[in-house]
Design brief:
The complex is a heterotetramer. Chain B is built from three helices and no strands. By secondary structure, chain B is mainly alpha-helical. The relative contact order of chain C is 0.06. Chain C contains 32 helices and four strands. Among the domains of chain C are: about 260 residues, no CATH class; about 35 residues; about 150 residues, no CATH class; about 55 residues, no CATH class. In chain C, the strands form two sheets. Chain C has a two-stranded antiparallel ribbon. A two-stranded antiparallel sheet of chain C has the order 2-3. In chain C, helix 3 packs antiparallel against helix 4 and helix 14 packs antiparallel against helix 18. The chains are: A mainly alpha, B mainly alpha, C mainly alpha, D mainly alpha. Chains A and D meet through helix 4 of A and helix 1 and strand 1 of D.
């Protein structure tokens, strides 16, 4: 029995090692394409946190926290800060809060870049922070 | 189809409310879940149903072509789902703690704070 | 203006009184007395002007949008009251400093008594109904604190509460009445209202306003059946009883009735309520005064009787009655103030207030005895006292009343006769005869304790001997104000043999009879179980029952409503919703059209809905927690599929993801909780099913109602047209979320953040 | 400038909260930040009020999207008054918390939660969009959930279950109402909804969402028969939290009710005004009877909140300019007084270690200053003249008499008497009665200032309103005028 569990955990941890970067990359893809295709910060954030949650299952919460380096609660703060900041940029220009500002030229890979996308990044980070805070705390029970 | 959904929403409300009126906190949570599904589906139906025309502007087009599903209720529901998730997560953990502290899942045993 | 400043300064002085007292210590009573003395002088200096017929009227806006001003209106009536308040106030302050010497709360006592004095002055000087009401309530409040002065005794607290409850309820009636009056007259300014008695008496608001105001006045002035709080208020220190509960505050109701009599008076309703109520109180108060043996309670009941007489006279409303009322007011303030202070002095010196255990004190405290004797003379209505003059006037008014003068005079003689006996009991008996008390060191109280009674008692005689100096002019102007027309009153001690004099003689004889027969009468009362009967049926009992009833009602109601059962709360909310929302639902379409709209559904859509239905039923019926969670998840996925089918891929993705996460969370938590057990009975389940189905049905009906009308979205076309061009995004839903309505999303992620903080805190923070 | 003034009451608490989350390991800095944030919020609110009073209704289109397509923030005088009150109560409660909240709660995000609550409240007052109002309600709600349960004591959790469940019912109904409104009118901007609903070919349809909102806001406002969550829970968290809730939360429900039933729906249609009046009377009575039945300081206060909500919606039910002004005056008076009473109950608890009247006593003797501090808001709440509560009551009674609604006037007067009665009960037991045992201590030296300053400050404001009621009343009157005639609000929001 013990051997079987160790086997599963070995498979899981190996799989996770390869899956994690892929899933994180995918989450960023979902985030970025959201402005034009289904997706966006929220779903992207969920994908990323699923990946990290998987990691915590495979290696334990402590390891996941170490790997993440930043406390998920701080991630929430940072995400919120980015979201607010994206709205404040326009105020600096005398426009109302949360007015979209866009970089004129299209950038390679990203396409049109503007503050609404920055806002979505904030959403993305908040979602990761929130889901991980909850899952880590529950797993540590 | 909207009539079918109206009936389905009514059923979800009935089930949700019935579950909320039980004495078990677990049923209470499940009832809340059903209730939030019902509300979201209600708003979705209220925005009127359009089959298979998501509000995505086709490549090359400048604007959405008619007919399209109303994007606004979708955005509202999305917000509502996410808020609902946050609240639900909190509520779930709350009942867990309540159970741990009070030692029962029977809501009828939790009326000390109301008693004279 | 100076008067307003004076009022403000009085309150300021009250606020500072505890501190000042701490500085002044022993002399504080004398020093504080300077302030009312100054008031007396100021008011006195106004007297000349007012007596000449000029009333003083000052207006200072306070809440002018509502017609509330801090107005002052000084005419003869206000003048008489203000002089009594400030004059007696000075004496009482001197007295208190000594009476309560070294009491730990003497500083607070000054605070409340000065607060009271300011309020009482404000009340009688107010020229606006509402500002008068403000002061009216403040007198109740200060009375509350003074009755409960000795607050660690439960009786004192109970008496204070009782006084507050009775006068407070009356106060609210009064407020309503005053506002109605103001509405009928279009102004709250007294001066303006006084000019439109005719209009007001014919207004539809007249009767309710009158009734409400009379209730207010009757509670304050202790008219039967609201009188019971006054004897109980004797829990207050004696100077308070002398000042508030005989000379001034209880007369506020009298003042109010007199003040408004030109406006409200003269009608049959007025006479019935005011004169009738007063008459009953006059007689019953006098009878009840024979009962107790406590000096202060005897005095309190006799005060009730006199207040009844005053009310009766104002209710009668004739010029003769007004004269008698003002004279009696003056007389009563003098002699009753004096007698209370004497009672206090006696209590202070030997610690006894029971008349049965007092006697022969005159040889030890002659000055006090003299004061008591003079006051008793006035109370008994014997010459040469102002009490005699007022009683003669009372009889004259009664004999000249339009209706049943004989009966009225008869009751007058009865009540006055009883009061003669009472005067003997409280004013003479303790000082004459054999000393019952064998206490050593029995001696005259200090100056500050006898000065007040002596001056008041003496004034009762002096005012009668030379009425033209002060009494006549003061009463003339007061009567003019009450009658609303200039009137000259000349008080005389002797106006020859007339029916009134005969009645006076009769009164004295009756009084002597009552005095002698008192023990016998008490015996009869005891045999008739009068006390027990009163305890069972009296108004005091009514008050107690009211409080008990209130508490019982409150408890029962709270137990019923705030039962602690969450499902009961939910049920009520659901029922309310069904009732209110259900009432708005209209069915605009025939059934056949709905059927056709059901038919247009695709088979796979129906399959999803049916599956959702089955899962819902499973969630409800299963006895396994995990099955219920799984069923909830299936419903969620069904919803997501529906979103997918009807053009909402973003929603579908989000729903899938959130549902998965929720199920995981639920599983993590729920499997540690106990299994489902059937907790509620069959009937409860049936009831809840019915309720839930009704609510669900209503929601369906609501949706059908809305769906039957076409929707023309004002917003969707704008988003469709501008999402790409202005907001640079092809996914309109996403553009709405991060741009068009980004503020919603900002709120949404804040909610998420808080939820995470909450979960974390719930799991990690343990304070217990 | 104007658009900045409108956004600041959201940005200040939000930024304060977020920064607070980021520096949660530095408790000292947290406290400074929380205090500064609350102070700034009050300042910005005052700025907004002055600006609105001078320049009329302010609006800003968030994201520069024209109304009704984006979200509009709008501040009329009513909103501005409410924001000022929010700032005031926020500051008072944060100050009090400095002296009373335990370090554990501080570590777990107490101050950020308070500021997010303030954010939700301000958002609700300032938004001109019905769905956005829902979102702010949720922000306020979730932070109140967490504050309610933070600490995890048994009573807190039991209270929280009911608080959470019943408030979620309210949210669900609110959400449904928004969905239905969109299904009828196809718009969410409240000014636009007002226009659309007034010209809709199906005016009857609008009554269903009107009723749904009445119930949803009725639950939040704790009116009869929807108030059960309040007495079940308000006495369970730390007193600073109770005070914050007592002052602000129910009033957001009242605000929303007044806003919706002046702007969106005509309350005189479909007998809504009558429903509101009946509810108001029953709310007053059941609330005050609840208070009479209680024997615990905070529970008495909790039930009084309910009965006084009755007065606030009485003004709405009467629906005259003066009655609405009365409601606004009442709200302002009540927020200050009720918060203060809760804070004072906390001081009493600190001194005697209990909220139960039977365990209390002797405070008048040992702490006359505290007694005076209690009497000011207590007598004001009971409507003793000339305190602020008297004026509030007077306005409403006068308004009621003017439209011949004698029954509700009688009820309001009787209830004010019962309020006095139960306030005197507290006075009698906690202050006059001698202490059951000698356990009188004094307030801890270090925290004295933090504990007393807010109490003193709020009492001073009460006294000021009492002596100079005209200022607040004329403000309320102007605010009511804007509510009665919403054309200006609509014009400024939609910009045409």
């Amino acid at each position: 029995m013990e051997g079987k569990e160790a086997m599963i955990s070995l498979i899981l941890s190996t799989a996770t090692r390869y899956l994690l970067p892929l899933l994180l990359l995918f989450s960023i893809f979902v985030l970025l394409r959201g402005h034009n295709e289904p997706g966006g910060g929220f779903v992207g954030g969920l994908v990323a946190s699923a990946a990290l949650a998987l990691y915590s299952i495979a290696y334990g919460v402590a390891a996941a926290r170490r790997m993440l380096r930043i406390d998920p609660r701080a991630l929430i703060g940072v995400g919120l800060l980015i979201a607010i900041g994206s709205g404040l940029l326009s105020m600096a220009r005398g426009l109302p809060f949360l007015t979209g500002l866009w970089v004129e030229r299209e950038l390679p890979l990203l396409g049109k870049v503007g503050t609404p996308m920055l806002f979505d990044v904030g959403v993305f980070l908040v979602v990761i922070g929130v889901v991980l805070t909850i899952i880590f705390a529950l797993s540590e029970e | 189809m909207d009539v079918v959904l109206a009936i389905a929403v009514g059923g979800l409300y009935a089930a949700g409310l019935y579950m909320m009126m039980r004495r078990s906190i677990v049923k209470l949570i499940i009832g809340l879940g059903l209730l939030s599904h019902a509300s979201n589906l209600l708003i979705f139906t209220m925005g009127r149903l359009i089959r298979g025309r998501p509000p995505l502007i086709a490549p090359g087009a400048e604007a959405l072509a008619e007919p399209y599903a109303d994007p606004l209720p979708q955005a509202l529901i999305l917000t509502a789902i996410v808020i609902g998730f946050g609240v639900q997560a909190f509520a779930v953990v709350l009942i867990k703690r309540v159970y741990e502290i009070v030692g029962t899942d029977d809501l009828d045993q939790m009326k000390r704070t109301d008693e004279l | 203006m100076n008067l307003i400043l004076g009022l403000v300064l009085t309150f300021l002085l009250a606020a500072l009184a505890p501190r000042l007292h701490a500085l002044l210590k022993e002399t504080s009573g004398w020093v504080f007395a300077m302030w009312p003395l100054a008031w007396t002088i100021v008011i006195g200096s106004l007297a000349q002007q007012v007596i000449e017929g000029d009333s003083v009227y000052i207006r200072y806006p306070w809440m002018s949008q509502l017609g509330v001003n801090l107005s002052l209106y000084v005419d003869g009536l206000s003048l008489l009251f203000a002089l009594l308040i400030s004059g007696i106030g000075a004496l009482v302050l001197i007295y208190s400093g000594s009476y309560l010497k070294r009491h730990r709360y003497l500083g607070r006592f000054y605070l409340f008594i000065l607060l009271f004095m300011g309020s009482m002055l404000g009340l009688v000087l107010s020229g606006n109904l509402i500002s008068m009401f403000v002061f009216w309530e403040l007198t109740s409040l200060s009375s509350y604190f003074l009755i409960g002065f000795d607050h660690e005794r439960e009786e004192a607290r109970r008496a204070a509460l009782q006084a507050m409850v009775v006068t407070g309820m009356g106060g609210l009636a009064l407020l309503a009445g005053l506002l109605l009056l103001g509405q009928a007259g279009g102004t709250l300014e007294i001066a303006a209202l006084l000019k439109q008695g005719e209009t007001l008496r014919t207004s539809p608001h007249y009767l309710p306003a009158l009734a409400l105001i009379v209730i207010g006045a009757f509670t304050k002035s202790a008219q039967v059946p609201f009188h019971f709080w006054l004897p109980n208020a004797m829990e207050a220190p004696t100077p308070v009883s002398a000042y508030l509960h005989s000379a001034t505050m209880v007369k506020a109701g009298i003042y109010l009735l007199a003040r408004l009599s030109p406006v409200l008076g003269g009608t049959a309703a007025w006479q019935l309520m005011v004169a009738g109520g007063g008459l009953v109180t006059m007689v019953l108060g006098a009878i009840m005064a024979l009962g107790p043996s406590d000096l202060k309670r005897i005095l309190a009941y006799s005060t009730v009787s006199t207040l009844g007489t005053l009310t009766f006279l104002i209710g009668l409303g004739t010029p003769l009655a007004a004269k008698a009322a003002m004279a009696l007011l003056l007389a009563h303030a003098m002699y009753k103030g004096a007698l209370f202070l004497v009672a206090g002095a006696v209590d202070h010196e030997i610690g006894i207030r029971d008349v049965r255990r007092l006697g022969g004190l005159g040889q030890f405290m002659p000055v006090t005895a003299t004061a008591a004797g003079m006051a008793a003379l006035s109370m008994a209505g014997l010459p040469p006292s102002i009490g005699f003059i007022s009683k003669e006037l009372l009889y004259e008014a009664q004999l000249h009343a339009l209706h049943s003068p004989t009966l009225l005079a008869g009751t007058g003689v009865l009540a006055s006769g009883l009061l003669v006996a009472v005067a003997g009991i409280v004013g003479l008996r303790p000082f004459f005869g054999h000393p019952i008390h064998r206490k050593r060191h029995l001696h005259e109280p200090p100056l500050s304790l006898w000065l007040g009674p002596l001056l008041l008692g003496g004034a009762g005689i002096a005012l009668a001997i030379v009425p033209e100096i002060a009494a006549s002019p003061l009463i003339s102007t007061a009567v003019s104000a009450v009658l609303g027309k200039p009137t000259v009153v000349e008080l005389r001690l002797w106006h020859g043999p007339n029916p009134s004099l005969a009645l006076s003689a009769l009164t004295v004889i009756a009084g002597a009879g009552f005095y002698a027969a008192q023990p016998f009468l008490l015996d009869i009362a005891a045999r008739a179980h009068l006390k027990e009967w009163m305890a069972r049926w009296g108004p005091q009992r009514g008050y107690e029952r009211m409080l008990q009833g209130l508490n019982a009602l409150a408890t029962a109601q709270t137990r019923l409503l705030q039962s602690g059962f969450l499902r009961f709360y939910l049920m009520i909310i659901v029922l309310t919703t069904i009732a209110l929302v259900g009432s708005t639902i209209i069915i605009p379409e025939p059934l056949s059209r709905w059927l056709s709209r059901i038919v247009d559904a695709r088979p796979y859509e129906l399959i999803i809905v049916v599956l959702m239905g089955v899962a819902t039923l499973m969630a409800v019926l299963t006895s396994s927690r995990l099955a219920a969670v799984a069923a909830l998840g299936i419903v969620g996925y069904g919803v997501a599929l529906l979103y997918m089918l009807f053009g909402a891929p973003d929603l579908a993705m989000t729903q899938f993801a959130v549902e998965t996460l929720t199920v995981i969370l639920l599983v993590l938590v729920v499997y540690r909780l106990p299994r489902f057990t059937r907790l509620s009975g069959r009937s409860a389940r049936l009831r809840d099913t019915a309720l839930a189905l009704a609510a669900g049905g209503m929601m369906t009906a609501l949706m059908l109602m809305v769906l039957s009308a076409p929707l023309k979205s004002r917003l969707a076309p704008f988003f469709a047209a501008n999402s790409l061009t202005l907001a640079k995004g092809r996914n309109v839903v996403n553009v709405i979320l991060v741009d068009f309505r980004a503020l919603d999303t900002l709120g949404e992620i804040t909610v998420l953040a808080v939820a995470a903080i909450g979960v974390y805190a719930l799991l990690k923070l343990r304070t217990e | 400038m104007r658009s900045l003034l409108l956004v600041l009451p959201l940005l200040i608490p939000l930024s304060t909260a977020v920064l607070g989350l980021l520096i949660r390991r530095k408790p000292h800095l947290q406290r400074v930040l929380a205090t500064a944030g609350a102070g700034l919020l009050l300042t910005s609110g005052l700025g907004l009020l002055v600006s609105v009073q001078q320049g009329g209704i302010h609006t800003v289109q968030i994201g520069a999207w024209p109304a009704p397509f984006g979200i509009t923030l709008a501040a009329d005088l009513f909103s501005a008054i409410m924001v000022v009150l929010t700032g005031l109560i926020g500051l008072a409660v944060v100050l009090y918390s400095l002296g009373s909240i335990d370090p554990q709660r501080e570590r777990f995000g107490y101050y950020p939660l308070v500021h997010i609550l303030l954010l939700g409240v301000c958002g609700a007052f300032l938004t001109g969009d019905i769905f956005n109002l829902y979102v702010w309600f949720e922000v306020m709600l979730i932070s109140s959930f967490v504050l309610m349960a933070l600490g995890g004591e048994r009573a807190q959790l039991e209270g929280a279950i009911k608080y959470v469940t019943l408030n979620l019912m309210s949210s669900a109904l609110f959400l449904v109402a928004v969905g239905v409104l969109y299904g009828i009118a196809g718009t969410l901007n409240m000014a636009d909804l007002s226009k659309t609903l007034r010209s809709t070919p199906h005016p009857d349809l609008a009554m269903a969402p009107a009723m749904l909102l009445l119930i949803a806001f009725g639950i939040k406002a704790a009116i009869f028969p929807l108030f059960f969550w309040l007495p079940a829970s308000y006495h369970t968290p730390p007193v600073a939290v109770s005070a914050l809730f007592a002052g602000l939360l129910t009033k957001v429900g009242v605000y929303a009710m007044i806003r919706v039933f002046t702007l969106l729906f005509n309350p005189q249609a479909h007998g809504i005004d009558l429903i509101i009046l009946v509810a108001s009377g029953l709310t007053m009575i059941t609330g005050v009877l609840g208070a009479v039945a209680q024997n615990e300081f905070r529970r008495i206060l909790s039930f009084h909140i309910i009965s006084q909500i009755g007065y606030m919606i009485m003004g709405l039910g009467l629906f005259t300019p003066i009655s609405l002004a009365g409601s606004i005056f009442y709200i302002a008076h009540h927020i200050i007084v009720k918060t203060n009473l809760f804070l004072i109950s906390g001081l009493v608890f600190r001194l005697q270690g209990s909220y139960h009247l039977k365990d209390l006593g002797g405070l008048y003797r040992k702490h006359p200053g505290l007694a005076a501090l209690f009497l000011t808001p207590a007598l004001s709440l009971a409507g003793i003249p000339p305190l602020s509560g008297f004026w509030a009551k007077l306005i409403l009674v006068k308004a009621g008499l003017e439209v011949q609604q004698y029954l509700i006037v009688a009820v309001s007067l009787i209830v004010s008497f019962l309020t006095l009665f139960s306030m005197l009960k507290i006075w009698n037991e906690a202050f006059w009665k001698s202490a059951p045992e000698e356990h009188l201590t004094s307030l801890p030296q270090g925290n004295r200032l933090a504990l007393l300053l807010p109490v003193l400050g709020l009492a001073t404001i009460t006294v000021w309103i009492s002596l100079v009621p005209e200022t607040l009343f004329s403000l309320s009157e102007q605010a009511a005028q804007q509510l009665v005639d919403p054309t200006e609000y609509i014009r400024r929001t939609l910009g045409d």
